[in-house]
Amino acid sequence: MVDKRASKKSGSSIKEKRAAKKAAAETTSGMEKLTHPTKR
Fold this sequence. Notes:
Number of strands: 0
Distance between the termini: 41 Å
Structural class: mainly alpha
Number of helices: 1
Mean pLDDT: 70
Largest sheet: none
Low-confidence stretches: none
Helix content: over 70%
C-alpha cells in the first residue's frame, strides 16, 4: 500500500527517528527511575 519511492526516500529517516525515539524513551525511563524510584 505504501509507495515504494516514498518508503525508500524516508526509510532511513524513519529508522533514525525510531532509533532516536527508542533511545529517548530509554533515557527518560532511566531518569524517571532515578528521580521516582518508588513509582514503579
